[in-house]
Amino acid sequence: MPEINFYVLPTESSQERYLFACKLIEKAYRSGVFAYVLTDSPEQSQFIDDLLWTFRAGSFIPHQIYTGEVVSVENTVLIGLSSPPEHWQNTVINLSAQCPQNFQQAERILEILDNSEETKIVGRNHYRQYQQAGIEIVTHKM
User: Is 62 exposed, middle or buried (0-12, 13-18, 19+ CB in 10 A)?
Assistant: First the structure.
């Protein structure tokens, strides 16, 4: 069973949500974890890809958009719309409106929610799905 963590931000800003995601991505990378960032659209994937280059001066996180093709570099963060490849199922950072497919295979799932009504509705749905699967959930109010 995966470890599920919800991070609930006090702001309604999607920009703050994405910046917080970048901080978690950086933390995972620095600890040697192959993180996968699940998004809803190619535009959202590209936005996260661009933001990882600029969110913190001096920070470097190898990353790329995952298109379903074999990845040649293992120690990189992948960003994409589909299920993560095998070696990137350790930590899934979910920015998508959907729960990750086969979420039971992940070791850890990080859900990041802002305080907007739309995001809270999505978060509640994810929470219910994980709960119905019998997974213990930890919520962090930021």
Answer: exposed
